[in-house]
Amino acid sequence: MHRFVVAVMMVASITACNSREEPVQPARTPTVPASIQAVVTEVQTVQVPLRVEVTGQITALVQATLSSQVQSTVDKLLVREGTAVKKGQTLVVLDSRDLREELARAQAEAENARAHLARMKQLYGEDAVSKQEQENADRTFKVAEASRRAALTKVSYTVVTAPFDGVITEKKIEAGEIASPGQPLLKMEDPQRLRLEATVAEGDLQALSRGATIPVMIDALGSKTLPGMVAQILPTGDPATHTFLVKVELPPTPGLKTGMFGRMLVDKGTGQTLVVPRAAVIERGELTGLYIVGPDSLARLRWVKLGRTVGESIEILSGVTAGERLLADASTGIEGARIEGVMR
Question: Do 194 and 240 sit in the same domain of this protein?
């Protein structure tokens, strides 16, 4: 009897559990994309010049390394790096005492030889000496005179002067040091006559010709281009890289200095490219993107690779195709927003 009561109670408990109602979940409301009004444009295909940028370095058209011609101590060093000098200006003075003594001896010997030659000519006229003796005296005088001129030249080497108007770019020695023949003392250049030297690939060389004007950009001077003139194209190239050295002379420009980085812009005709308005581009760190408006009228941010500026537009190298719609002003874009816009 007791076992039956327990079984009934267990069945009743199970029935009660099975009949317990589940809580009713509230119905989910579908998310509606935000709607914005914005101007919509298309990715355009335009004809643009095919331009190749060739990098190079600014160098001086006229430069010189001034070296010592004799061995002597530097007595005076009258310039330093950055000093502007004029042609013929004294830059370095070497100790000339020993060389002047040598010059004095050579001058004395030349004077004695001159006097002896004059005496021999007189005696030869009087038939007092032979022709051979007169010729010997003449040769002795010529040797002595050559020695005098050589000694005078050595003395002149003790004063180093500027060969042209320019500026001192490097100082290789100090006052009191001993200068040896061939040892560099100073370097100088003409800062008003500068050029860009760049190596151009053989495939781009046909777009250049000597005497042609070509735009050059100097990053340190901003975005303004300088009118360069192709002065020289070396006739032989590097067989390993298949490049040729091209020298482009530049006009006198404030702030332009040797050693600066420059870019030569070589035009190679025209070609088609994709462009969008500048305002359509959004930047996030190092990434650049566009808000593309799809067939569903929703705006989606798409990352793209930019090229050069073309007027009021920017070239798109990859990431889009011609005819795709996008927001003309990226600042109005919202990811996933429904665009209620007008075409421009």
Answer: yes
Residue 182 Cα distances to 66, 70, 166, angstroms: 9, 8, 22
pLDDT in tens, 121-174: 999 888 888 999 999 999 999 999 999 999 999 999 999 999 999 999 999 999
Question: Could you give the 3-state DSSP secondary structure of residue 333?
Answer: coil
Is pTM, for the whole model, over 0.85?
Answer: no
Which residues form the domain of 230? 53-62+190-271
Structure confidence by residue, pLDDT tens digits, 282-332: 999 999 999 999 999 999 999 999 988 888 899 999 999 999 999 999 998
Specify whether 140 is located in the same domain as 177. Answer: no
**What is each CA distance from 208 to 200, 230, 233, 266, in whole angstroms?**
10, 8, 9, 8
With b for 16 or more beta-carbon neighbours within 10 A and e for fewer, the 307-340 pattern comes to eeebeebbbbeebbeeebbbbbebebbbeebbbe
Query: How far, in whole angstroms, is CA 11 from its chain's centroid?
Result: 94
Helix, strand, or coil (residue 332) = helix
CA distance 208 to 212: 7
User: What's the CA gap between 338 and 31, in Å, rounded?
Assistant: 12
* 10 in any annotated domain: no
Among residues 214, 242, 271, the one where a domain terminates is 271
Maximum separation of any 2 CA atoms in the chain, in Å:
183
* Cα–Cα distance measured from residue 264 to residue 250, given in angstroms and rounded to the nearest whole number: 11
